Amino acid sequence: MKKRLLGLLLIATMCFITCGNEPPEEFYEGTPEDDAAIDAILNDDYPELLVTNDGFIASYAAITMPNVVFEGRDSVLRADSPLVKQVVDSTAYGFDSLRRNYDRWYSKDTACTVYLIDTFHVQTHLHRNLIYVGHYDHPETTSMGDTNWFLGTIDTIVPTGDSAYYMDDIVGDGRRLIFLEPRRSTTPTVDPETGDTTYAIIEPFDWQLKRISYGSYYYPTRSTDAPTINRVLLDRGAVVDTILSSSYDTTYPGHIMNRFRSIDSLLEFTAGDSVIVTIEFDDPIASQNASYYAVCAGGTPERVVLPTIATGGSGLLHLSGQGLVNLYFEGVYHDSYYYVNPNQGFDATIWMVTVRVN
C-alpha cells in the first residue's frame, strides 16, 4: 500500500512540475504541397542539380602508367591460375544506368534537405598493349616435405584487334544534398525573455533553394579501399581555390566536400578559360599508385588525364558551358587496371563539384 501511495505521489509531483510547460516543439513533417513545390524548384528551376552522371565520358583518354612488375604477393596470390596482368595505355567510361534514392527530410526549423543517394552501374573500358600471363610452375619444398607452387614462367602477349580491348562492369555509389527553406520576413522579431532575434516564415510557404553540398562517389559501392582524396586545388593564376575533404574548423569560409555551400557563393569561372587541377591524396605512398582524371561536363565534355606529381596528380583542364556546370575529379588505384585474373576490383573515388561558368 505504501508503494502504491508513493507511486501516486511521484506522479502527482511530476504533473505539478510540468504543469503549464509547453510541450517540446515537433518536427515539421511537410505536406504534399511542400513536396510538389520543392520538386518543381529542382526540376524546373535547377535541373542541373539533379544531374550527377554527366562525368562519364565514352571517348578514350591516353594514360601513362608505371611498368608492370610482379611483386612478392603475386607469388602467393593464387586465387586463380594463371595470373594475368596487363599494360593499359588508354581508358574510357561507359554509362549503363543510375538508381536514385530521392528523399526529402523536413526538420524542426521548417527547412527541407533533399538527399540524392545514387548508385551507378558503369563500365570501365581499357585499351591494353601488353598482357602478361604468369604460371604457377615453380615448386618449392618446405622443411616438412610439402610442395608449394610459386610464380615461375611469365609469357608476354601483344594483343591485336578485339583482344586489345578490355571492359569490366563496376558499381559505385555516393550522395549529394540540397537544402531549401521557406521565405522569411525581413522584419526581425525579438524574444523578450531570451533576447533572440528571429524572422517569421511568410505563409503560405514560398520555398527557396539555399545551399547545396558537393557529391562524393566511391567504387566499389561503400568500399573502405577506395582512394581518399584529401583536397583539390584549382589554380587560375592569380587565385588558387582549395576544396577540402573535411575541416573541424566550423568558421572556415572555404569549400568543403561534406558541408553545405550557399548557391550564391559557388566557384565562378569564365568559359574558355583553363585551370590547373591538382588532386591530392592523404597518403603519399598511395598517391604514387594511382591515375588521376578531371572532367568539365560543360559544352564540350572531356575527360583529361592529370600527370602524376609527388602528392597526387596535376594538369590543365579547359572550362566550357554556361550556368551551373559539374566538375569531376577522380583517383583510381593502378591495381584496378593491372590485374585481370584474379580481378582486384575497381577502387576509385570521384568528387563532383558544381561551379558557375559565365
Helix and strand sequence: HHEHEEEEEEEEEEEEEEEEHEEEEHEE
Helical fraction:
10-25%
Using only CA atoms, what is the Rg?
28 Å
Number of helices: 5
Distance between the termini: 80 Å
The major β-sheet equals: 14 strands, mixed
Poorly predicted runs are none
Q: Overall 3D geometry?
A: elongated
Structural class: mainly beta
The share of residues in extended strands comes to over 45%
Number of domains: 1
Q: Report the strand count.
A: 23
Provide mean pLDDT, rounded: 90
Structural description of this entry:
- With 358 residues, the protein is mainly beta.
- The protein has one domain (27-357).
- Helices cover 12% and strands 48% of the residues.
- It has five helices and 23 strands.
- Strands 1, 2, 3, 6, 7, 10, 11, 15, 16, 18, 19, 21, 22 and 23 form a 14-stranded mixed beta sheet that branches.
- It is elongated, with a radius of gyration of 28 Å.
- The mean pLDDT is 90.
Q: Can you describe this structure in just a few lines?
A:
The chain has 358 residues and is mainly beta. It has helices at 2-18, 32-45, 72-75, 284-287, 335-338, and strands spanning 61-62, 83-106, 112-134, 138-141, 147-150, 154-157, 165-182, 184-190, 197-201, 207-212, 215-219, 229-235, 240-244, 255-256, 261-262, 268-269, 274-281, 290-296, 302-306, 312-318, 323-333, 339-341, 348-357.
